[in-house]
Amino acid sequence: xxxxxxxxxxxxxxxxxxxxxxFLADFLRxxxxxxxxxxxxxxxxxxxxxxxxxxxxxxLWLAEAVGADGHVTGLDLKAELLDHARKxxxxxxxxxxVSFRQGDIARLPFDDNTFDWVWSTDCAxxxxxxxxxxxxxxxxxxxxxxxxxxxxWSSQQLLPGYPSLEARLNAPCSAIAPFVKGKPPExxxxxxxxxxxxxxxxxxxxxxxxxxxxxxxxxDVRNALTLFFEMLWDDARSAVTPRDWAExxxxxxPESPDFILNLPDYYAFFTYTMFxxxxxxxxxxxxx
Length: 288
Hints:
The protein is an alpha/beta fold. The protein contains ten helices and seven strands. It has a seven-stranded mixed beta sheet, sandwiched between helices. Helix 5 links the parallel strand 4 and strand 5. Helix 2 runs parallel beside helix 3 and helix 5 packs across helix 8.
């Protein structure tokens, strides 16, 4: 996978860990996620929550957006991710603008009306519990007039020239299937405007942001794309034909002589979709 060991050195993480995968993924995702953040026009000096912050890189981007007088709290369930987030913040020069706390987005450890806004990437859009209670919980901690924004990966075309194969691989896609199987249509991410409406948010909007890459690819982008091939499709083997699986391995394994990222004219794109709404009323008593 090319320069992955160098990436591991920059991240301070062991290769193969979930935290390291998040680090690699941002080489592909960063421009798109920052574009989505920019459209929110977060007020300078405001205080926000990054719900499901992972290794904290997005928390730092949000802190840059709110300026020196603002503050962003990152929240995640996994202590090991938060440890890395704190170390990254210390090295960034932004440690005075951020803090990190362990907790569950379905039961936030904050009083009502604590934040000016809440943001969540690739987390609140795929809750283990029903989505409406999660959106209501996010809205609970936002002051009236503030916004709730959730962003999630929504599509991709990563195998140029092989649209039918990619469609068949996507059907049982490991990154999406656990959040789709057996669930009603209204609980799926692209129906999030309904969740926001039912949570009594107003000024609702949805917007899709596209990111793209083209050859020649940097080692970092190659590593990120290889990671996404694995994350999206490595569990599809039992759900596709042997012929399709052989084609997947031929095109998507770095050791293959036909590895698709070696194409001199490689081009691919992916999308992230953001839904947002405004909190208009104050909430009840704080949760313990």
